[in-house]
Amino acid sequence: MDLFHTLLEGLTYLAPAIALLAFLVALASAIAMVRRRAPGVSLWHLVTHGMDFWSGKGFQPHAAPFRRRFLIAAAVFFLAVIAAAVSFAILAGDQVRG
Hints:
The chain is mostly helical and 98 residues long. The chain contains 4 helices and no strands.
């Protein structure tokens, strides 16, 4: 049980750092994608039509590597936030029980 708590404490501290790094990678990838948007597609169009951004319809074909990196970073960010929340909740629950 002690090893389990040690691993959870490590995850509680490591997951937010991973989430921050994934957020920064996703931000840089999104900026690179926006610079390679398709002709006639404005930034406002991408803001108001989110599916065009997520699906890649509003971008030129050479924005595909940045889109893949963005999607992977968004997934890692989501999983890291969930991992941090779950590990924090388990450790907080154990402290309440004593």
